[in-house]
């Protein structure tokens, strides 16, 4: 199924952490779009899973994206799939929609691990970041070459809605405009 179905989606927010974001190119846009996706997911009952890389060093998730206390998935491996228990946190009937940082390190390794595990993955291009734009672009190209579908925030949100008659349409539209 090519459309992004909210009943089959899980939003995966990878390492959007307070001490990392000041170093990320165009960080404000990445955080804003990840925030839009997180808010839309919550309105549309799409599960959200947040990872934190070395939280002692990089701090917690940005407040705008913060999960319920104690629910962030801690990791030290760059690729979340290398951390025991991570794949068990992803329901088998849910396709990950991925946002986060850094595109060419933790996002890339997590996405490649998910693909290797047989998952259908969408990466939200305008909601992933890196310190250097060329690293972000190279990572997106590599993930696409290995089977990840590259999408945008608005593609995801409007496919999750499906129709302007959706009961949450106006609430979600406020996130975009």
UniProtKB/TrEMBL annotation:
InterPro entries: Isochorismatase-like_dom, Isochorismatase-like_sf, Isochorismatase_domain. It holds the Pfam family Isochorismatase. Gene3D superfamilies: Isochorismatase-like. Signal peptide: none annotated. Residues 9-154 form the Isochorismatase-like domain. It comes from the Bacteria. This is Isochorismatase. It comes from Methylobacterium oryzae.
